[in-house]
Amino acid sequence: MALMPTSKQSLIPRDGLIAVALALLALSVYLTTSALRFHSIDEIASFSVTRSFVARGEFDGNVIFWTRAPLGRGSIVAQGSDGETYVVKDVAPSLLAAPFVMVGRVMGASSVRSALIPTPLVTALTVGLLYLISRVWGASQATGMLAALAFAFGSMAWP
After folding, report:
1. Tens digit of pLDDT for each residue in 31-41?
2. Contact present, 145 and 154 (Cβ < 8 Å)
3. Burial 40-61 (b: 16+ CB within 10 A, else e)
4. Cβ-based neighbour number of residue 14 at 10 Å
5. Dihedral over alpha carbons 114, 117, 119, 125 (to 10 degrees)
6. What's the predicted TM-score (pTM) here?
7. Which residues face 85 on adjacent strands?
């Protein structure tokens, strides 16, 4: 049994509309049910880098330097050769959140909530993409929608 199909199916215009509708449905449920607050120290670490980048154009995590002693060396932050404290997590989520924080600042919205918007947004886009991929692989529209909805609401993808 091959993991990839041997022939691809063409998408019809309606598939794009269904993918957008599924993504918007998922996004609306995610934003309705999400508290948009921190759940882990990793989110705080990423946010500290985002705030540092937006405020000063730097990538340090000095604001959470205190985590080094109680959590152990290198678990969240590490001392840089320049004396600054840096987060040892991936910088991509921090960079992705930066434009949202900038817009949030202009609108007077919470920086924390603004920084946490990309997670449900990316997950909702994944729902639509999953539908399109299933259609290209030859699944019926109903099967593609069920797969996308199962991912959206029946898995740990739900932010």
Report:
1. 999 888 888 88
2. no
3. eeebbbbbbbbbbbbeeeebbb
4. 10
5. -150
6. 0.77
7. 79
Q: Give the phi and the psi of residue 34 in degrees, each rounded to 5.
A: -90, 140
- Collect all residues with Cβ–Cβ distance below 8 Å to 150 and sequence separation of at least 6: none
126 has a pLDDT exceeding 90: yes
Tokens of 113: 């909530």
Burial class (CB in 10 A: 0-12, 13-18, 19+), 112: middle
Predicted pLDDT of residue 1: 47
β-partners of residue 79 are 85
Residue 86 DSSP SS3? strand
4-32 average pLDDT score: 87
Report pLDDT digits (tens) over 43-87.
Answer: 888 888 898 899 888 887 777 777 766 776 667 877 788 888 888
Residue 32: partners with Cβ closer than 8 Å, 6 or more residues away: none
Segment holding 113, helix H or strand E = helix 111-116
